[in-house]
Amino acid sequence: MVMSRDQNAGQGHNIKADNSSFERMENFKYFGTALTNQNSIQEEIKSRMKSGNACYRSVRNLLYSSLLSKNLKIKVYRTLTFPVFLYGCETWSLTLREERMLRVFENGMLRRIFGLKRYEVKREWRKLHNEELNDLYCSPNIAQLIESRRMKWAGHVALIGEGSGLYRGLGRT
Q: Is the domain of 123 the same as that of 151?
């Protein structure tokens, strides 16, 4: 696959290896990650959100249980839903729009876990505001987590060295 933001890039290119010719692809899945020739990760993020929601739904009964503490619910969320949702995030290059999408997803999950808050003056229930979620959650937000994973992955690539195929594939030689 030729990856470029230019629609015409790689149109005339054929890849040959070991007397085999490979066709040009617009998109495909590689190890569960959606790759497109436009370097767009929006479809991948949407796919990861669907997977994260499916994982959440599978443990929904635990997260709604009044028998579990909020801290235990957060541990279940971070242990089961996060890895499914963040699979392959080390390779994502996020725009502000995509970061906002991720924050909305994360805040939605946290609102489900923490539930509603009682507004004593009016004696009504209301959703938690983002600031209240941040105070209750006390962990780095999802964009910060992705950035730290990207830095960790970049460090691993740097340690591999110039002789490896991965290093050459990243255009470092």
A: yes
What does each C-alpha distance from 31 to 28, 41, 88, 155 come to in angstroms? 10, 15, 9, 22
| pLDDT tens readout for residues 46-103 | 888 898 899 989 988 888 888 888 888 888 888 988 888 888 888 888 889 989 999 8
Domain of 5 in residue numbering reads as: 1-40
Residue carrying structure tokens 């495909």: 28
State how many domains the chain has.
Answer: 2
Q: Rounded to the nearest 5°, which phi and psi values hold at 14?
A: -115, 140
Cβ contact 36:26 at 8 Å: yes
Question: What is the distance between the alpha carbons of residues 73 and 58, in angstroms, rounded to a whole number?
Answer: 14
Q: Do 6 and 72 share a domain, yes or no?
A: no
The 10s digit of each residue's pLDDT in 115-169 is: 777 677 777 877 888 888 888 887 888 888 899 998 998 888 778 766 666 555 5
Q: Which H/E stretch holds residue 150?
A: helix 142-160
- Please say whether the beta carbons of 46 and 24 come within 8 A: no
Phi-psi region of 90 (alpha: psi -120 to 50; beta: other; left: phi over 0): alpha
Do both 24 and 56 map to the same domain? no
Quick check: 4 pLDDT over 70?
A: no
Q: Is the pTM of this model over 0.85?
A: no
